[in-house]
Amino acid sequence: MDIMRWPSFFANNKFSKIVTTCFFAFMVLEAVFCLPVLVFQYTESVGQYSPFIVGTTIAFTSYTILYIKHKPFCHMYNEIFPTLWRLKSTGPETFDTIRNIGTRTKCFTVFLTLLTILSATLALPWFGDEYELYVTIKVFEDCLDKYATFFSVLFYISLYHGGFTIVLNVLTFMYLTLHLFFQCILLKKELDKLGALPKSHKKDKFYQDTVKTKLVFCIKHHQRLQNFMIRINNFMYFPIMAFTFSGIVCGVCLIFVPKFFEKSFWRVFCAGLVAFTLVVAFCYMGQLLEDTTEDMYYSVINLPWYEWNAKNKKLVVVLMAKSQKNMALSSSGLITVNYKLLIALYQKIYSGITFLVNVSHTSPEL
Question: Residues 152-175: pLDDT tens digits?
């Protein structure tokens, strides 16, 4: 799929690897240099710079994921993907459905890329409040004197690369989820075709053998999909945990925006829109996968098992038992990616903001 065209370029091109390593090294040095200054000299400004600090943490997490998950992704791709069904295997109608979904996904990728570029562009020094917005710029200007301009330019360029790295991780996860989703669509279609076979007498050996062959075929593929799901969840365990926690903290930090960033409404709005779009898209993909596997289970229970012999009925029971539990994107069961996660994020962010507001009212000096 074309959704992985530029993520693959970022991960595999030698020049891109060098550039990514340089920006990651710059981010590490930036953190090592700026954090001690922030903690020991600008302690009273931690709240003011908290949205930027959390955003930088998300970018740092994305770089870390890019390095530690690249090889596992390649292993998964080489082991799992050759065993998947071809997208045209169940007929042109299903393939057209999959192609339409792929087209919409490509349009979303273009929209997300343009939105990321716009967000990084708005983060440039247009409004004159960068000293109060970015702790990195504040430390550079206060401590580096004549070198401040050079490192500030590097910092602004790194905003583009950091934004692309975050989007790259999300597109990679979407790529894996979409392929699993497509395979579930194909398996459901195959089950529907099995249920639509012309009915015959139970003693018709050819009919019963045909049913048995197709049932075994579907059971084996369902088992492969379950293994694929386990591999995806193992692959996404740390990213789901890290991005969920960072998203909650980042949402709570929005309480500081009206107080400190009056000139940066569009800048903060665009960055927030990127984050919101990524979260909604990923939760949508998780919910879509759950709904499709649930539909697949209904296709299993609607099979005309009463027309089949005892051996085929046992195979139906096996397939029914395997498909009873929906496939879901999950971090060891602690966090499940679906629409419920959106509600949970909203509740946690609202609770955190409410707590800070109450604390500020009882302690005005805060």
Answer: 899 899 889 888 888 888 888 888
pLDDT per residue as tens digits for the range 307-335: 888 899 999 999 999 888 888 888 777 78
Please state, in angstroms and rounded to a whole number, the distance separating the CA atoms of residues 251 and 199: 57
**Exposure of 34 by Cβ count < 10 A (0-12 exposed, 13-18 middle, 19+ buried)?**
buried
Asked if 34 and 135 count as a contact pair (C-beta separation under 8 A), the reply is yes
Q: Is the pLDDT of residue 219 over 90?
A: yes
Residue type for position 230: I
**Interior angle at CA 49, CA 138 and CA 67, nearest 5:** 90
**By the 8 A CB rule, do 274 and 163 touch?**
yes
Please say whether the beta carbons of 303 and 188 come within 8 A: no
Instruction: Identify the CA nearest to 152 among candidates 18, 30, 19, 25.
Output: 30
Mean pLDDT is lowest, of 12-16, 33-37, 117-121, 282-286, for: 12-16
Distance of alpha carbon 218 from alpha carbon 323, whole angstroms: 11
Helix (H, G, I), strand (E, B) or coil at 66: helix
pLDDT digits (tens, 9 = 90+) for 21-61: 888 888 888 888 888 887 777 777 776 777 777 778 888 88
- Where does residue 4 rank: exposed (0-12), middle (13-18), buried (19+ CB within 10 A)? middle
Cα separation, 28 vs 284, in Å, equals 33
User: Do 253 and 246 touch, CB atoms closer than 8 A?
Assistant: no
- Residue 104 CB burial class (10 angstroms; 0-12, 13-18, ≥19): exposed
Torsion 50-55-58-59 (CA) sign: negative
Question: Half-sphere exposure (CA, 13 Å, Cβ side) for 163?
Answer: 24
Q: Both tokens of residue 119?
A: 């967000």
Alpha carbon dihedral 200, 201, 205, 208, in 10-degree steps, equals: 60
